[in-house]
Amino acid sequence: MTHGPTNIDSKDKCIYCYDSNVELTDEHIVPFSLGGVHIIQKASCLKCNKITTKFERKVARDLWGDARISYDAPSRRKKNRKDFISMGNSEIPASEYPAGLVFYEMNIPGILQGLAEDVDISKLWKMVVIHDDKRMETFLKENANKPTLSFRNVPQEFGQLLAKIGYGQVLTRLDLDDFNPICLPYITGEKSNVSYVVGGVLTDAQPIKETGYILNTKGIIISDNRLLLIAEVRLYSNTHAPGYQIIVGEILGSENITRVIKKMNSTEKVIN
Ligand SMILES: [Zn+2]
Hints:
The protein is α+β, with helices and mostly antiparallel strands. The chain has one domain. The chain is built from 6 helices and 11 strands. The strands form 4 sheets. It has a 4-stranded antiparallel sheet with strand order 8-11-10-9. A 3-stranded mixed sheet has the order 1-3-2. It has a two-stranded antiparallel ribbon with strand order 4-5. A hairpin with a 7-residue loop joins β10 and β11. α1 crosses α4. The longest helix has 18 residues. The two termini are about 15 Å apart. The relative contact order is 0.16. It binds zinc ion. The site of zinc ion (ZN) has 8 residues, from β3 and α1.
């Protein structure tokens, strides 16, 4: 598992709509269904929770349904989980099925390419399927047919999920008034072109044994007066699943930049 504090104090308001006079629920930075252990306490109002739960469920079910069964991913409704996966006329034990995890291979975010906010490059995202190589080999020896993969194409929801994870990651170090949250309207669905703030990284992802996910924060200084906060996210990092970067926010003004960098470094020392 990745390092860092697993319980982050509440920001005393909803991190998505900033409402403070409402009931707040704990927020998993990486969804529970992906093995997420990092939680921001009392972070989301019920209205915003409804929005984030909706795209999280869509990705878990539509993109990774079979694979989550096959790799025994956590679920709040595990009791109802199937032990077998149907394949044409036969049924294969879930634990032997080399289910594929579908991911999007992305170009770097539009904002880093200097594109306008409304240039949608998600059409260029390629779907890739990640398998457990060993399982696949055994499976092909014993079965005449290749495993089938059923999934729905949900790039918008996948992008929203990544933006949400990246935003939560930055909030483990910083507070809401430390930066201007560029990614926020994409999480809430107010803006739809997620490819502007969500994209891939330039390096190929190497599997890291027994590590479920990796989260990192970095800053890029664009000019003396502007710094971009970037969250790097890898899910299923024990596989070749691609890595992503999310432009979470920006900090304007050299004094603010110095102050926030100091704050990030000081929290980092606590974390490591
Ligand atoms: Zn809210």
